[in-house]
Amino acid sequence: MTSAVEHPIGPTTVAEWSKLDPPPDGSRLELLYGHLHVTPPPTGEHQYASDELREVIKYAIRAAGRSDLYVHSALGIEVSTGWRTAAIPDLVVLNDKPIGASFKPHQVALIVEIWSPGNSRRDREDKRVGYADAGVPAFWEIDKGRVIAQYLEKGRYVPEVSARPGERVTIRRAAPVPITFDPAELNP
Fold first, then answer.
1. What is the domain range of residue 53?
2. Which parts of 24-166 are beta strand (E)?
3. What is the rounded distance in angstroms from the CA atom of residue 151 to the CA atom of residue 174?
4. Contacts 24+ apart (CB under 8 A), 35-41
5. Burial level of 64, CB count in 10 A (0-12/13-18/19+)?
6. 28 located within any domain
7. DSSP label at 15?
8. Residue 6 domain-assigned?
9. Which of 93, 142, 163, 184 counts the most CB atoms within 10 A of its CB?
10. pTM (predicted TM-score)
11. What is the band of 1 on the pLDDT scale with cuts at 50, 70, 90?
12. How far apart are CA 71 and CA 73, in angstroms?
């Protein structure tokens, strides 16, 4: 008698995920360990924070004279083929021209995730670890208005800045260019 061994990795590959059409309702279809996850469309507050932060980052990139960096909302990132993981972060700074439907980790200079109450602790940790394992050099988390900017060191993210609304900060190491702002700017 043989028994089936359940494998923790689901059946969907990154290549299969990259060929899927986005959901028509604006939700995001991500792939975590071979399992498809649908995230509802962002709330107005969530989208406002993303749009405002995108402008802050874009201004800093232009002020630094960097024409080789591109900031975009909700791009697909092929985090890991082996772990069958692909995510759609809220903001991505690419160090490559934004041509195509999804991007490899080596094309990414910064990822920003704006956490919603529906994001589980495991979802947050899986993404953080996945981005670090993929070698994404900088990762920011926005949670309840607080910004945590982290840089990659020895395969783990190290916090550089943790700031709440009302605290004007400059992020240097956890960003492709110095970025100065107050997290209060992200609230409608």
1. 43-75+87-186
2. 28-32, 35-39, 70-73, 76-80, 85-87, 91-94, 102-103, 108-114, 138-143, 146-153, 156-163
3. 4
4. 35/10, 36/10, 36/12, 37/123, 39/88, 39/118, 40/118
5. middle
6. no
7. H
8. no
9. 93
10. 0.93
11. very low
12. 7
